[in-house]
Amino acid sequence: MSKRSSKRRKAAPPPNQPLPPYAHGRARNKSLLDKANKAGAAGDHDTAERLWREYLQDVPDDPDVNFNVGVCIGRRADSPADRVEAAEHYERVVRSAVVRMERKADAMNNLGLIAEKTGHTDKAAIAYGFALKMWPEHAAARVNLGDAKRFMGDWKGAAQEYDAVLDQDPQSANAHLCAGMIALLFGDFERGWREYRWRYRTASFKSKPFVSDKPPWTGEVLDGKTLLMVAEQGWGDQVMMARYPAELKRRWPTCRVVYHCDPCMHRLFGGVIGLDAVAFNPTDGFDYVCHVMDLPGYCGMKAEADIPPAFCIRPMPDWPVWKLENVNLLRKRIGLVWAGSPTHGKDKSRSIPATMFQPLIDAHPECDFYSLQAGPAQPQVAELRNVTDLAPQITNWTDTAQMLACMDVLVSVDTACVHLAGAVGTPAKILIPFSPDFRWQLQREDSPWYPKGKLYRQPTADDWETPIRRISEAL
């Protein structure tokens, strides 16, 4: 990272927020405009939008009010027609001869976000670049440009953009978080985990921090103490970090470790090696608190050798027994998962249609294929031939864990089943998007997190056929 500037510069709008605060238009119809601005400031966006639209009937080119209407459209809906209409309002701002340059840059940044939502990352990058020419200190546009570069595979360029924001504003939480994810991609674990701690300071981070009067754990000696591990983010993240209770017990044999997580995970995590208890929203009975994605950093991870073993979950007596019926032990058993949660921010770049697996299935009549797909994409199994659907038998995560343990290999996109396969010791062949999640790093085909996993990467953002063909050849 370049040397930080000590001079404080003019603050830019928060990064990655497509909806900046309401602008106050020039008052040609002051009474109407005042009502609209007051409604917007009070959070009554529907009333504000209606009044601003009424104002635009008389003053259609007012740049500030056009900007506000674009913001309102983005707040209430996100259909293709809404995006087109919002873009028209932002374009009026950009074309205006009277609006201040900072507002032009805001509008251009929002045009970039609209382009990105429609899958045109290249056009989004151009828009962010124009926003920065209009206002070089626009931190939001620069972080967004870094994200666009990262998505397009220019990871070094992305890192430079994030570092440039930190030169401008050392307290930019978004830039710290993005710089951390890039560092983890590059294998710079020490900086990566340190920067990743900024995630809870960003407005866009969905998980909320656990509130407690107990101190956060930052690596203190735990002999005779109890640590509360706090689940966060997706199911896969929670399973991935379930390896740490055993590591904590190895370092401090007399410590206790409790996992705070959703009740639906309690039975599964009851099988975590080294874990003393599971809980939901406990208020007492522990000395320290640590969000699970902070554990690697506070455990001092600086190299791959510092990663604890992936295998960390074993079946427990209270698990409902599940077994694979009518199995031919002479045939290889292949589990399939083609989609993650649609609420994941990058789901469109990682999930695939189930039918993309059909050539792989057809190429291996000597294997038995099983679908472990759950969730909204599960019905797609009906479009596949020669696949046994196990979804009707899945009632909880312990069922999935036992199903994975019965497989010879899992073939899956980057989703929670990959992490669960690693936790129960099942080999996995993992489809990795062109712009990967930070934990999969770059270029390599192996993973330090999952020694039994092999990574099959997209050569370009629109090519899943190549990695699926390579998996088929490897089977």
How much helicity do the residues have? 40-55%
Q: Average pLDDT value?
A: 91
Strand pairing plus helix content: what structural class? Answer: alpha/beta
The amount of beta strand, in percent, is 5-15%
* Ends distance: 43 Å
Rg from C-alpha positions?
25 Å
Widest β-sheet, arrangement of strands: 7-6-5-8-9-10
Order of helices and strands: HHHHHHHHHHEHHEHEEHEHHEEHEHEEH
- Strand runs, count: 10
Low-confidence stretches: 1-22
Count the helices. How many? 19
Largest sheet: 6 strands, parallel
* Envelope shape: globular
Task: Describe what you observe in this structure.
The structure is a single chain. The chain has 475 residues and is α/β, with parallel strands linked by helices. The chain has 19 helices and ten strands. It has a six-stranded parallel sheet, with helices on both faces. Strands 3-2-1-4 form a four-stranded parallel sheet, covered by helices on one side. Helix 13 links the parallel strand 2 (256-260) and strand 3 (277-279).
Per-chain topology:
Layout: H1 30-41, H2 45-58, H3 63-76, H4 80-95, H5 101-117, H6 121-134, H7 139-151, H8 155-168, H9 173-185, H10 189-196, E1 226-230, H11 235-240, H12 244-251, E2 256-260, H13 266-269, E3 277-279, E4 288-291, H14 295-298, E5 332-337, H15 347-350, H16 358-362, E6 367-371, E7 387-389, H17 397-405, E8 409-413, H18 416-424, E9 428-432, E10 453-457, H19 465-474
Parallel strand pairs: 1-2, 1-4, 2-3, 5-6, 5-8, 6-7, 8-9, 9-10
Key features?
single chain, 475 residues, alpha/beta, 6-stranded parallel β-sheet, 4-stranded parallel β-sheet, 19 helices, 41% helix, disordered N terminus
